[in-house]
Write a structure and sequence with these properties.
transmembrane, 74% helix, mainly alpha, 2 strands
């Protein structure tokens, strides 16, 4: 593999990682603060992509679609919290898993009924089309760099919110000991709603940003949800910093693994078996990394601490 191709794959891994972080950040806060397993978090990513695509088609502008999709996914997250999730807080994890899995089925079928089963294509914003030369012989799509910049900017703002504000201190304290926060007089239900709404909006933002480079279709959030759970287990449940570093690690491991393993296996195997085995092993590397982290640090790399 050439140096240029390796750099492209590394950038692709970073871009994938920041998208994973946008999904995993809300998921880790919901799980850490509320001890609530929300399998329906992935459909909020899907909902953001569909809403962004619809608003962009109606307005003729990707940016208008993004601006309208963010408050819409926020409202959708708050509605789900009010209608479904708040009734499950006192239930055990099995009840939460079953109920939120039911929400997945309902929303996936609802998306299929409203938008159809055929994938939707979202045009890339013209201002971010084309490529930029990073070095001689290496052009990289501007839009993917914009995703990377937007994800890093969002991560920085979220870090400032969580680490430098009173609301963030409550969120961190809730992740460490939610009953104690409630005993101190904090309206824990309002805090839960805030976390749910922000998590849904972040997932929706990831869906809108991914829409021009991926197909928007029912069920698109399911695979992202599985990988996001891997991210928060590696990073540490309830930790925003852990979610970011875990997402970057997972993005790089998965992308570089899929790219490099076939070439490495060609040293000992014929090209066709090497390609097949490399693809299979590349998809396993993330889970092997998770198993290694859990063996060495069962609480993850950066578990949540009290604020």
């Amino acid at each position: 593999m050439t140096t240029q191709l390796l750099l492209i794959q590394a950038l692709n891994g970073l871009q994938y990682g920041v998208l994973l972080f946008l999904v995993a950040a809300g998921l880790t806060l919901v799980f850490g603060v509320m001890d609530f397993i929300n399998l329906a978090h992935g459909v909020q990513y899907m909902l953001g992509a569909y809403l962004g695509a619809s608003f962009a088609a109606l307005s003729g502008s990707f940016w208008a679609g993004l601006a309208l999709a963010l408050p819409a996914t926020l409202l959708a997250g708050l509605a789900l919290e009010w209608l479904v999730f708040r009734h499950l807080y006192a239930r055990d994890h099995l009840a939460q898993v079953l109920a939120t899995f039911g929400v997945i089925l309902v929303l996936n079928e609802g998306a299929r009924a409203i938008w159809g089963s055929a994938p939707l294509q979202v045009p890339m914003p013209e201002a971010l089309s084309g490529g930029i030369q990073l070095m001689p012989g290496l052009n990289y799509p501007v839009y993917r760099l914009a995703i990377l910049a937007a994800g890093l900017g969002t991560a920085a703002l979220l870090w400032l919110l969580v680490e430098r504000t009173r609301v963030g201190a409550l969120v961190r304290a809730g992740a460490a000991n939610a009953p104690m926060v409630a005993a101190l007089g904090v309206d824990i239900h309002r805090l839960f709603m805030l976390v749910f709404g922000c998590g849904a909006m972040l997932a929706g933002f990831a869906g809108v940003m991914a829409a021009p480079i991926l197909s928007v279709e029912p069920g698109m959030g399911d695979s992202v949800l599985i990988t996001a759970f891997v991210v928060i287990v590696i990073g540490g449940i309830g930790s925003v910093r852990g979610a970011f570093l875990g997402a970057v690690l997972v993005g790089l491991v998965e992308t570089l693994g899929r790219a490099l393993l076939p070439d490495l296996l060609r040293l000992v195997l014929a090209p066709s078996p090497a390609r097949q085995a490399g693809a299979a092993l590349g998809s396993m590397l993330v889970y092997l990394a998770m198993a290694l982290v859990l063996a060495l640090r069962p609480r993850g790399l950066f578990p949540a601490r009290a604020g």
